[in-house]
Amino acid sequence: MQRPIERRLTFFAALVGACVLLCPAVSHSQTVQDDPSRTGKPGQAETTEDLNRRLEQLNPSLATPSADSEPGEYRIGAHDLLEINVFEAPDLNRSLRVSAGGEISMPLLGAVQSSGLTARELEGTLEVKLRQYMKDPHVGVFVTTVESHPVSVVGAVKKPGVFQIRGTKTVLEMLSLSEGLADDAGDQVLVMRGAGLHFGSDTNPGTASPDAAAAVAGPNDNDTIKINLKDLLESGDQRFNVAVYPGDIVKVTRGGIIYVIGDVKKPGGFVLKTDQNMSVLKAIALAEGLNATAAKSRTKIIRTDEKTGQRVEFPIDLGKVLAGKTPDTPLKPADIVFIPNSSGKTMLYKGSEAAVATASGLIIWR
User: Number of folded domains in the chain?
Assistant: First the structure.
């Protein structure tokens, strides 16, 4: 017949044995969590939130307009809305929209070519023509709405759309206008030149002056410039912050997404940059590691064929991968890593928790 103290020791030994059985699972989980590629750990590539924060920090330097964007240097284009004031003849005051051919129509004067001129140059042109009817006319021209210099920002940005610009902008300015990067942004910005926007190109080719055409069309039309986002936002090298001209398209590439579901601490989707090699262990590290009850030997990769849409499952023994006995499996965009729950470990884990609670109660009671 065992004494009370011996019964307590026997119970405690059984409890320790149950905890030891759980130690390998906890150990593997800790190994994955310590991976440097985990979100928020030192050494990991910057997240989209980090890049947007950097973009916001650069905004003060973007507030100073360049010489090309000064209002006095803006050249009128097709579809712009102009406010015309003739001070000696208020009846001639008009709000006029520039036609697709680059002209406005004025009383007494008829069609007046406006596209390619600055507001000051158009004032001079109208004053010369009005001298036939007035002794010393004074004309004011104001560009109230710019509609002729669009730049499209598309792809993985928060506010894609078409933006009207005066003169030229930079890539950073256009990203700022589109309110930053979306969560699934990749690692490249494409600036596509030569969208076919030229003064007078719709109905009357060649009407614009060479200077006006140069102001609209950027150099090396029909080229595509590829810029690395990290270089653009972190290097400080202005070569990456290229000029954007009216008619250009700025596109932020989208990154692929890897999904981790099942018995992990933080299931979800994680953006895969185009220059990033993602593997099963890295994906689990991004999910903050395995739970103690994960069935490592029954892990699966679920992959969808892009052409047929058919799903294929690849079984993986994650325990052997963690032990270095089998190689880590590379992943592709849209892959799903599924780590099931082990019912045996769950029961043992719950049993050990109950045993600890019982033992604590007995010790307190004694």
Answer: 3
**Which residue's structure tokens are 């006095």?**
72
Domain housing 90 = 75-145
Q: What is the pLDDT of residue 363?
A: 57
Examine the pLDDT at 162 and tell me if it is beyond 70.
yes
Residue 360 lies in a domain: no
Residue 40 φ/ψ region, left for φ over 0, alpha for ψ in the -120 to 50 degree band, beta for the rest: left
Residue after which a domain boundary falls, among 97, 129, 145: 145
Q: What is d(CA 289, CA 39) in angstroms, rounded to the nearest whole number? A: 11
Task: Walk across the sheet containing 94-97 and list its strands.
Answer: 94-97, 81-86, 139-145
Total-model pTM: 0.55
Please report, for residues 57, 190, 207, 289, the alpha-carbon distance to residue 155 in angstroms, rounded to integers and kept in the order given.
Answer: 22, 10, 34, 32
Q: What are phi and psi of 57, to 5 degrees?
A: -65, -30
Residue closest to 130 by CA, chosen among 112, 115, 114, 117: 112
Determine the distance from the C-alpha atom of residue 17 to the mean position of all C-alpha atoms in its chain, rounded to a whole number: 51
